[in-house]
Structures are given as structure tokens and as C-alpha cells.
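Example with several molecule types.
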Amino acid sequence: MELLKERIRKDGLVKAGQVLKVDSFLNHQMDVELLGEIGKEFLRLFQKDQVNKILTIEASGIGIACIAAQYFQVPVVFAKKSKSKNIDGEVFTSRVESFTHGRVYDIIVSKKFLGAQDRVLIIDDFLAKGSALEGLCKLVKDSGATLVGAGIVIEKGFQEGGSLIRGQGVRVESLAIVDHMDEETGEIFFREG
Amino acid sequence: MELLKERIRKDGLVKAGQVLKVDSFLNHQMDVELLGEIGKEFLRLFQKDQVNKILTIEASGIGIACIAAQYFQVPVVFAKKSKSKNIDGEVFTSRVESFTHGRVYDIIVSKKFLGAQDRVLIIDDFLAKGSALEGLCKLVKDSGATLVGAGIVIEKGFQEGGSLIRGQGVRVESLAIVDHMDEETGEIFFREG
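Resulting C-alpha cells for the full complex:
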């Protein structure tokens, strides 16, 4: 998605440790006009897939998912990060490792909001090592819902998440795939095609 | 806002301890069509106030704020919940007590995204004891921005948050104010006018 790549080139900041900061427009401050264009692009990619629910994870996925959901005209469910595993059986749960924050946590979704009747599109802002996305896929699978695919805003193509999830047979559509970042010059190189 | 009150009466669940669960349409599963109507109502209330930024707090405020921001055509900034106080001076920070979760945490906003040029509308899903809203107001004040007011989806009118924040001179517009909930019958009574 060219508009997105241009914005990342203009406002994205390359930091030490292969960190890409896009907090001025995507995941701290959010440009809702850009999110609208992102939502339209996800609809274009998945419009034939009879999506009836969008699943995301708190926090930064929520805004992107809600705006995209307006184009699909479907509800959003967001998985919550939980410190203690719910033991009353009312939730689907999955374990996720955050490499950014150096910790492991459980994510949960109420069983009321995911089930066999659902055709789920997962939406998230980043795909890097793939732990969050793998956890979300597991929630969908456990619920008996159909996983239509995953729509990702920015994929770090030099990390293993994309291969991992696609290798499990999940359709992953990333609107911008970063192949390489130069920490010295700040240049960002995208995968073409 | 009558549409919202009807929805709360229909799908809201009154739980022990004066808990109102609206997780089927507002803060776990989200009805984005309803959020669109909520956004339009916030615009109607604040359209003369030259809002140029919407501030909210993760997680459940984000979807509401992003959809409202489309009507205002302004960016959203969401305050992050942080376990450790950032000490490098790059963020505004405030302490918030969560009565639901029984803990105290810091909220932070990067200094890059709030400043004297901003006219800020705060948006959040709930107002109860008012600690989160008070924390957000403090962030705005510390940044030198102008606080236009706060748009709240559901205010628990029988708790002290509304009086507390209005008593500080902040304009608070709540789309539904719950005056009383009957835990026996599940009935919800709204303030009129």
C-alpha cells in the first residue's frame, strides 16, 4: 500500500535494535484518516471472504480494527491481556510472548463473542516474531470459528513471524513489509510486489 | 442519547457490586455502528470548540475515540498504562487508581503529542470514581494544552467521579448517566434531561 509506505518513510523512525517507531501516526498518536485508507485496503483484500467478525488485541490494534470494521460492517472483538489465567472456563485463552516488553502473558476472549458461526479476520498493527498473531489464531481455532486470514499494517519481513504463520496455512496480508532497515542512515527498505 | 440508553437497557447486565457489564457492544465486543452514532453525538456537543486532538486511555477508550475522531477530523492520542515511571523526561505522567482492578498505575503520554497548541477533548467509555479522567486532565494541564472538555459514554451518576471532575471546572458530557441499578431485577435507571 503505497500511501502507507510513503508515510512510514516520512514519519517512521529507525531505532537501535531494529526497532521501527511509528508512534506519531499508528500506535500512540493515530492518524484516523490514514486508518480509514488502511481499512479500505483490508476490505479490498478480504471482501469476498464473508467476514462477520474482526478480532484484534489490545491496545494498539483496537483503533485500526474499529475503523476497518466500519467498512466490513461487522463487530470488533479485542483480546485482553491478562496477568492471571481465568479459571472459570468462560474464556478462550492463549499464551503470548512479548519480545518488546520481555514478558509472557495470557490473552483472553470471552466465549460469548467467538464461536463456530464466526468467520474471523484478525487485524493488528505489527507482525514481527509472530507470537501475538499465533496466540490470536489459537483463540479462533479453539472457538471453532473459521479463520479467514490476518490483516497486518506493518510486517517486519526480516523476522520470522510472517513465515511462521503463513507456514501454518494462514493467509496473511501485510500492507507494508519492511525487508531491511539501516540504523545508521534511518533508511527503510520495503519488499516490492 | 436515547439510542445508547435503549442499547444499555437491552444488552447491559447488572452484576453484584454495582457493576454494569456492557462488554457485548462497548468494551470487549464493539458495535462500530453504535460507536459511529456516539461519535456524531460527541461532535454535536463539541463542534464549536475547535478541538484539534482527542485524548483517551487504553484499552477500551481507543475504539470509541478513533471513530469519534473521524467526525472531528483530528488525530487521537491514547495514554498508555505503564508499570514503571518513565524517568527520561520525555513523557507526561499521572497516577491513576483502578478500583475495578484494585491497583495503582501510571499513565503516560509522549511530550511529542501534547502541547500548548492543542485544544483537547478527552473521550472515555466509563466515568465512575473519576480517577482515570482526573489523571487524563492532569496530563493535559501539564502539557500546557487547553482542555475543551470530556466526552463520556456511560457515567455512573451514583459514584463521585462526575461531581469531582465537574467541581474542578471541567465540562463533562456523558451520553448516558446511570442513576441507579437494581441488582435483584437487573433494571437500570437513567438520569433524565
